[in-house]
Known about the structure:
Blueprint: E1 3-12, E2 17-19, H1 20-24, H2 31-38, E3 42-44, H3 51-66, E4 75-79, H4 90-98, E5 104-108, H5 114-128, E6 134-141, H6 151-154, E7 159-169, E8 175-183, E9 191-192, H7 204-208, E10 215-216, H8 218-239, E11 249-252, H9 257-267, H10 278-281, H11 288-298, E12 307-314, E13 318-325
Parallel strand pairs: 4-5, 4-6, 11-12
Antiparallel strand pairs: 1-7, 2-3, 6-7, 8-13, 9-10, 12-13
Helix pairs in contact: 3-4, 8-9
The protein binds coenzyme A.
Coenzyme A binds near residues 29, 151, 256, 259 and 313.
Amino acid sequence: MPRAAITAVGHYVPEDVYPNSYFESYLDTSDEWIRERTGIRERRFARNGATSDLIVPAARMCLEQRGITPADIDCIIVATVTPDYFFPSTAAVVQRKLGAVNAWGFDLSAACSGFIFALVTAAKLVESGAAKRLLLCGADKMSAITDFQDRSTAVLFGDAGGVVLLEPSEDEQVGVLDYVLYMNGEGGKYLYMPAGGSAKPPSLETVKNREHYVHQEGRTVFKEAVVRMAEVTLEIMQRNGLRAEDIAWLVPHQANLRIITATAERMGLSMEKVMVNIDRYGNTTAATIPLCLSEWYAAGRLDYGDRLILVSFGAGYTWGAVYVRWSLPKPKD
Ligand code: COA
């Protein structure tokens, strides 16, 4: 079976930057609190458009990089918790907007672990031959489900899209090499959107009670995230006989800098080998990992054969790690 390899990577962030001072202007919070507790300095919010509009420019970047057309794509997977609509899927919207007329596809919901879960799913489709040029998109317009009056969540999130192209590779040394995925539904009540789904359809009351936004017990989720991120990272390292010095980059979900630092410490990895951009974008849910990959690749900081550990924790609870060997040479200037 061929490996599934990442053969292009792109991202998109909205133009409008909201520094921490934006929240200071109307909430009981401070730049210092936000920076110290989360590592975030600023984030981007899309004033217009939907999640598909965060994906399409990132997808075009991928296609251009690879020198192929939308018609060459045969499958589109979108990981998101902020789909344009309940239905049709955001994958279908992206297919139309891109003109990817030969693609089938679907959405996948695993919150902050969305990209990791979708990457494993996508890799299986590519390895089996069911897909040959698959656009894997992680994107969230978190501003659409953020309660801007709730200081404990408003300061955390941002909007962004990241896309990777997956193709079969005959080189067995590179691509998606291994993964470990977990879920524990007992954690659902600590991080969720209470209303809008079939459990609690929208009503005047749900709107009045602000139940169409992210609700999070931050401290509870934090404690679980710290333990699980470290655990699953160590597990994938052990399974593959990897030592800290073998790893070129840890690519963690960007929810909180303290969680990221704790994970790196448990691995014995210096922070110089950890991708961090939470300071500029906040938590963009399914977009954080492809956004990191795309920025690091564009900056010439990723090279062929680099060993990467992608790791995430999010609502569900869901968590997991993927071992990838990078399959692209550094871009030419
Ligand atoms: N500004 C100032 N104070 C704030 C604040 C804000 N924006 N948000 C919360 N606080 C206050 C709280 O009200 C609380 O005050 P109290 O002690 O008087 O009750 C205090 O700060 C500490 O709150 P707590 O929630 O315990 O802070 P924390 O250190 O856990 O940090 C988070 C809060 C949300 C940053 C952190 O818990 C977190 O990152 N959680 C996990 C996020 C995550 O990984 N999610 C999963 C993937 S999306």
